[in-house]
User: Fold CUE domain protein from Aspergillus clavatus.
Amino acid sequence: MDRFISRKRPRVSSPVERQSQSLDDDSTDVKLAMLLSLFPDIEQDTLLDILLSSGGSVEDASSVINAQLAYKPVKKRANGVTAIQTSLTSHITNDTGQPPKKQLTRKGKTLHLFSPEDVAAHTPCTIIHNFLPPEEANALLQELLNESEHFSRYRFQLFDRTVESPHTSCIYVSTPEEFRQQTSEYTYGGTFRSNVRQLTPHLRAVSARVQQAVNDEAQKRMQAFYPGGKKLRYQSPKQWMPNAAFVNCYDGPAESVGYHSDELTYLGPRAIIGSLSLGVEREFRVRQIVADNDDEDSKSDTSPTQATAESPSKRRAAPKGSDSRADAQGQVSIHLPHNSLLVMHAEMQEEWKHAIAPAQTVSPHPLAGNRRINITYRWFRDSLHPRNIPRCRCGFHAVLRCVQRKRENRGKYMWMCYAGYTPGTKGCTFFQWAEFDDDGEPLWEIQSAKDEAPTLRNFVAEEHKQ
Ligand SMILES: O=C(O)CCC(=O)C(=O)O
Ligand SMILES: [Fe+2]
Assistant:
């Protein structure tokens, strides 16, 4: 077990890879999966709390849990799941007899948001309740509940184990040609997806409303929150035009998705995403990513941090003193009722992580029972079609990532071999900084073949052609 905990990413030989691997941490999903495999009897929600409390360190989280397991006998729940206390600071001591040095983000510290005003003020999102006419929402929900029979769990590699996503999903695109591309050219987590289907009538009909609302909300956001009321650097100045929909199904309270930022490879920098929730209400948790040493900075810094076009979230002045790191890492919970549209704005994916937390219980929905359906409408950029993206020596195209934690390179984008970043997979050493113009278009020598080759078609334009 110790070997498992302390095992680092595969050793690298090239300086370039060493550089890229020191740029950022594993995703919370991977860390959570590691903890789950170490403590299979402990609830995922509890493990997530402890992981966050431990500043994202699997090793620290494991020692906290082991300390508690040694400290007093653990109760087994009726369902066989181990009950463990999540509010640990006052109860657990480490080898030095002191409470763990990192601040805890306790359950009581989660800020619960319900109203659109609060969501806009405290997060990089906006929410519209009762988004669709009720009959249209129900028709879409029913259509996708039927579709969900075809959904599957995606798999990812964790050391020598294959782990399954804790919910099912499917990708929807417009045409048979796009279906072909999605299953043979686009990759997710280094593999091709088999669960791709063609857009359904209600998904398509609703996309026009989503397109309109997302563009309206993005404009409002820009005027109210961004420096000088202007778009962010790397944000596209064009209208947001969805051409892919990822649909998730969470069947029952235990189904979830761990903390992550959405992959930017095809969306590009400063992506906007429209996310429609149907069925059972669940909590969407978000937290801001804190750069290494931010707590030290805030101790010496007495002036509020200024927002910049690079980092608009900085308009929230960090609280001072030793609590600053805990506060900045505190979670915010946005409650997502049936028929609500959440817009994740351009500052979200680079600077925040999000999750659907497992719930203790859910209130059944008349049509969906215990299920929640979520649709994220996305705009894949033509310029970031797989055929244009740099390839690594593994034969796949590289993935686009943003440096989120390492202070010296924070906000920079990089192309890298996906496998090289995944524990337990060999991968190659491919790494290059990704360069974009101010509108987020890649700066590279693309062969002109791309002009004739098909790319994904906007859902709304395609509807008008039919
Ligand atoms: O279910 C949700 O609301 C979020 C889903 C999500 O984060 C994703 O599909 O990337
Ligand atoms: Fe996501």
